[in-house]
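pls design
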């Protein structure tokens, strides 16, 4: 059984030309980071709130990568395990800790889970 983070990561890896990580990697200048920030269940259908952070060498680079992420995420619904994938919000979100430019797109996802 795959967890939703794996499904999203594999999907983005197929559609983007940058590394897709589940843990921050300060050695990379341009990559995406996936983080589950919440979740729940309604009528036996699990849901997750997934934040996808786009790191770039400049604000423009991070913003452009964010647009590619949003285009790729529109195709996530073609996966049979996904019932809903909707953009909650996206915004400039600089990483002050490591002083890198970053954008973040937050998605509400409902999915089917096999037993």
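designed seq:
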């Amino acid at each position: 059984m795959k967890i939703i983070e794996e499904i999203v990561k594999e999907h983005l890896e197929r559609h983007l030309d940058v590394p897709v990580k589940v843990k921050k990697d300060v050695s990379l200048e341009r990559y995406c980071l996936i983080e589950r920030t919440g979740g729940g269940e309604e009528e036996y259908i699990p849901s997750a709130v997934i934040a996808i952070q786009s790191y770039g060498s400049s604000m423009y680079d991070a913003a452009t990568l964010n647009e590619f992420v949003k285009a790729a995420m529109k195709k996530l619904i073609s996966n049979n395990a996904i019932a809903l994938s909707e953009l909650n919000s996206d915004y400039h979100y600089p990483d002050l800790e490591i002083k890198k430019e970053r954008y973040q797109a937050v998605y509400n996802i409902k999915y089917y889970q096999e037993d």
